[in-house]
TrEMBL record:
It comes from the Bacteria. It comes from Rhizobium redzepovicii. This is PilZ domain-containing protein. GO terms for molecular function: cyclic-di-GMP binding. Residues 10-94 form the PilZ domain. Pfam families: PilZ (PF07238). Gene3D superfamilies: predicted glycosyltransferase like domains (2.40.10.220).
């Protein structure tokens, strides 16, 4: 991470993702979900508390990513920031994930209240509408 006017900035942009895997520290293993990912690091959400301090070495295992090693940079409310080791092949593994497996994640939009609308005002649903016969 580089410092600019006492503000810590990331070296690479993170992209949101939903990859499930596990985090290993010493002899403990915790299920986790990778929230965002870059070639230099990742943010994880752990299912149970990870008993490791900032600066601890960890391993992340995920089906689409393989094995990544890194250091914990921050922990807060069940979330963990990991900086990947520069001597590992993390850059190639993350690039491969984005090339072959990554699907863009879109935010879930709020569903509008359809109950208040009458049947005449409500647009027909594509799956339930019947096609009109051709003339």
């Amino acid at each position: 991470m580089t410092r600019n006017l006492t503000i810590t900035a990331r070296k690479a942009d993170r992209q949101n993702c939903r990859v499930f895997g596990s985090v290993k520290h010493l002899n403990s293993e915790v299920d986790a979900r990778i929230l965002n990912l870059s070639v230099t690091g990742a943010a994880l959400e752990t299912k149970t508390p990870l008993h490791a301090a900032s600066g601890s070495k960890v391993r992340i295992e995920a089906e689409n990513l393989g094995l990544l090693e890194g250091i914990i940079r921050w922990k807060h409310n069940g979330r963990v920031g990991i900086q990947f080791d520069v001597n590992s092949n993390a850059r190639a593994q993350v690039s491969s994930y984005f090339r072959f497996f990554h699907k863009e994640i879109r935010p879930v939009l709020a569903v509008r209240q359809l109950r208040a609308a009458t049947k005449a005002e409500r647009p027909p649903h594509l799956a339930t509408s019947t096609p009109k016969p051709l003339r």
